[in-house]
Amino acid sequence: MRISHISVSDKITLLVYGCNFKCKYCFFKPQDCTKLTTKCLYDILSKIGRVYNLSRITIAGGEPTLQEDLPSLTKLLDGNFYSILSTNGSYLLEKIDKLKVNEVHVNLKALDDKKHKILTSQSNKRVLEAIEYLGENKGDLNFKVEISTVLIPGIIGVSEIGKIAKFIGRWDLPYHIIAHVPSKLNMPRPSKGIIEAVKNISKKYLSNVSTSLEYRRHRKGKKILIQKKV
């Protein structure tokens, strides 16, 4: 598996290297590239878990589903860690039957395909297909599902969030709204009022809506670099 680095906070976060999207607001900064066997990587994660007394791990990136050996890693983690896969969803269906995870978080950048292409350089067709599959089969899945969107005033605002909520409301999937943090994309951070407004609109269609006001997913922690470059 090609990884960038590992972050340790209230959980272990494994950041893989490489992504098929070019998101204009992405804050991920790869720390070189290290290639490890899944067994070697599992041993490293297990040691970190023991040292920091952590049993939760998020596999993110980058885009984890681009890694061919992702399923084998999740099988090693199964039963020893509570694992969460964070994905853009574009290649999720190709691996979904082989994964052994507790949760799958799909980040839907936009429902409008033109906006999605502007933000990522790619169509959202495969992402929507993955979400539809998760929704239609949610009663038979062995993992929890959550959809998330970054709220970007002027691009992904109240109207677009409402449309996304209505779309995933067909299956009443849990929805997490993330406030945009200005970085590469020169757009403002949404106010608390806007965040509350999109949450209230989303709750018209969904029973489980949360925002980054209540819970920050990305907590600053210690970065661990694995020195074995390819």
UniProtKB/TrEMBL annotation:
<dbReference type="GO" id="GO:0003824">
    <property type="term" value="F:catalytic activity"/>
</dbReference>
<dbReference type="InterPro" id="IPR058240">
    <property type="entry name" value="rSAM_sf"/>
</dbReference>
<dbReference type="Pfam" id="PF04055">
    <property type="entry name" value="Radical_SAM"/>
</dbReference>
<keyword id="KW-0949">S-adenosyl-L-methionine</keyword>
<feature type="domain" description="Radical SAM core">
    <location>
        <begin position="4"/>
        <end position="223"/>
    </location>
</feature>
<dbReference type="InterPro" id="IPR034457">
    <property type="entry name" value="Organic_radical-activating"/>
</dbReference>
<dbReference type="InterPro" id="IPR013785">
    <property type="entry name" value="Aldolase_TIM"/>
</dbReference>
<dbReference type="GO" id="GO:0051539">
    <property type="term" value="F:4 iron, 4 sulfur cluster binding"/>
</dbReference>
<keyword id="KW-0479">Metal-binding</keyword>
<protein>
    <submittedName>
        <fullName>Radical SAM protein</fullName>
    </submittedName>
</protein>
<keyword id="KW-0004">4Fe-4S</keyword>
<keyword id="KW-0408">Iron</keyword>
<dbReference type="InterPro" id="IPR007197">
    <property type="entry name" value="rSAM"/>
</dbReference>
<dbReference type="GO" id="GO:0046872">
    <property type="term" value="F:metal ion binding"/>
</dbReference>
<keyword id="KW-0411">Iron-sulfur</keyword>
